[in-house]
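MODEL INPUT / OUTPUT PAIR
PAIR INDEX: 1
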Amino acid sequence: TARDFSLAEELEEETDMTVRPVKVYLASQKAEAISTDTRTLRVLTHDPKVQWVLIFAYPNRELLLSLDPVGEESLIRSVVSALPQRGYGVPAPHTLFLKELDMSPVDIFYIGSDHPHNGLEYHPTTQNCHEWLLYVLEHDLKVNVDTCYASPAQ
């Protein structure tokens, strides 16, 4: 099908509908992408050399929500995977704290599976992880990316 969503592994959280506090982090594989300057999230996330992901940190588990282009056509697919637990409130390397909110793990799966970019062809400048991320931040997490400044994770 044109729409595509994937679990990196079988996760018990896929059916966990218990709403509870979760810390949301913006993460990058590049340390230099995480800065303490005054760029808004919209500007910060548009560095074409950086791939961004979201980390949802529950007290007992962390879930990663990311974009993964697949196949010869490079179709966009949202992926949810589990991260090794470091302890609640201990941020992963290269992260920025976004917000704490109340949501269930299954809500994260819905965010990934319902993303409108799923199944579209990946393009480096128009259909990419930056556009994918901005949609999640604005529409699903209700973050105003034009006025919000991410804080370095503590």
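PAIR INDEX: 2
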Amino acid sequence: SVIILDEAHERSVFTDILIGLLSRIVPLRHKKGSPLKLIIMSATLRVEDFTMNEKLFKFPPPVVKVESRQFPVSIHFNKRTEPDYVTEAYRKVCKIHRQLPKGGILVFLTGQAEVNILVK
């Protein structure tokens, strides 16, 4: 009875079609007595793009804004991509760990297999 769409700011034709369909289904389910809740989440979405779009929602839906803390972030990257970028990511993480103050390190990879290799 609940559908959650997270990272809604990463829009594509597919997500736009999905949101359009769901915006039609929610009122239909409500009329039939089997309500469906649609939760659209994003940290960076321009809320008005959705809430004020009368084609999506006849009446503006409720918005819940959750305050969060932001932490300073520094970005480290190589100027060129190495052929074995997973091994290079490992080297970069080790270098950051040795040379910089304590903190979290976030590495973006293309899939679960690469994450598993990097963790080993």
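PAIR 2 NOTE: The chain has a mean pLDDT of 88.
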